[in-house]
Amino acid sequence: MRLSKLFTKTSKTTPADETAKNAQLLIQAGFIHKEMAGVYSYLPLGLMVIENIKAIVREEMNGIGGQELIMSGLQPKELWETTGRWSDETVDVWFKSKLKSGAEVGFGWTHEEPIVETMKQYVDSYKDLPANVYQFQTKLRNELRAKSGIMRGREFVMKDMYSCSTDAQQHEAFYQATIAAYNRVFERVGLGIDTYVTFASGGAFTQFSHEFQTICDAGEDIIYINREKGIALNEEVLNDKTLADLGVGRDELEKVKSAEVGNIFNFGTQKSEQMDFAFTNEQGERQYVHLGSYGIGITRLMGVIAEKFADDKGLVWPESVAPARVYIARLGDDETVTAEADKLYTLLTANGVSVLYDDREVRPGQKFADADLFGIPHRIIISEKTVAAGTFEYKSRVSDTAEAITLDDVGKMLGLSTSQLL
RNA sequence: CGGGGAUUGGCGCAGUUGGUAGCGCGCGCGGUUUGGGACCGCGAGGUCGAAGGUUCAAGUCCUUUAUCCCCGACCA
């Protein structure tokens, strides 16, 4: 993308009505736009990050047999009454409205009931199971208080997956596969080392549920971790019995602030029974489906990544989710320089490398400052000096020093073959 | 929902004891510049979140209200 064509602009100042680092930087860099408290729009650069995260999650979900769909945003009242969750006393985050006819509808804050209703129509036999579906959906929750920028909003993008299994064993296999897939997701977005599968209270069916917690000062959770053993537990299950079960002593645990980036649980057959979601087994008997629910907060994940890696100059994106892998800045408007910069931009783009090309008629200092603020991993400068030397000037976002490199070096760095550079 | 703070051009801010608004950035035009957010000149842009009140006079005082931020509570 050519920056001269991008409608968003960066700002020299951070917005006064945000204190969360993620929101300050994302707004300053033009990645997001605040509509109201807890509600943000995603502008081109921000959307690219979202889409990159989604692509990784999608790959991993497909890899364990997830099938993607998109559920509706509007949900009928009657559906939620079958499980007793329409009431505002039971669920206090509902946004509700009415159709012209007077029928009441809710805006989806989760899709558990609707997905069961949908799956009921297609699952009749044990031969139809397991069936695992997921979606990327904007959830609407009327939170009493939004906070922490995009980390806790009233409107946010979530990947939610639901598993339908014949029995506890089939369910458990998928549950474990999901834990592994989630670990790969967090590894790939750069948070692997600081993200822990965390034991949390499990409800009626299992001793524990599992949260995926990323160590983050801006998070709103407190967890207890043991880095060596890779064990983490939520405050709510921190008791002698749990500690004994997990084989870890209380004095071996470190208390840290964290952000919940994922959460998975086992519903057993409770919801299936409430909603009469059943199949016929091999013996011709009717049985209730075992359900599981698995979420990853996509926009929260983006916020956590922004928070964790940012430095005093701005955002710092891991290459896997950055809006572009390479930032090319041309200095000055010399014809040869422009031609060389255009050439590199075209070459990289043609080979599938995402590039933010700063072809604006602004001074060098502004280009450097914006490159840092945007947080693009690789910065390549093309100027009269570099053209004369037949090299490019390269600097990593996380490095303080620049170096002269050749086109071959650029190719190697980006994983391009020699033939691709011709 | 309880407590605290805030609201003044697009953004960030200043406005002393009430006397009818100012700075920086940004923006437009002209010129000089061009390797870490350049400089000079000219110019456009607000009636001070909203409503009501006190006063000869309100951005400054009073009341109500809306919105935003923070702490807490809440978060299947």
Can you walk through the features of this model?
- The chain is α+β, with helices and mostly antiparallel strands.
- It has 2 domains: about 270 residues, Bira Bifunctional Protein, Domain 2 (BirA Bifunctional Protein, domain 2), CATH 3.30.930.10; about 100 residues, Anticodon-binding domain (Rossmann fold).
- Helix content is about 30%, strand content about 30%.
- The protein has 12 helices and 21 strands.
- The strands form 5 sheets. It has a 5-stranded mixed β-barrel.
- Strand 5 and strand 6 form a beta hairpin.
- Helix 1 packs across helix 8.
- The protein is elongated and about 80 Å long.
- The two termini are about 20 Å apart.
- The protein binds one RNA strand of 76 nucleotides through helix 10.
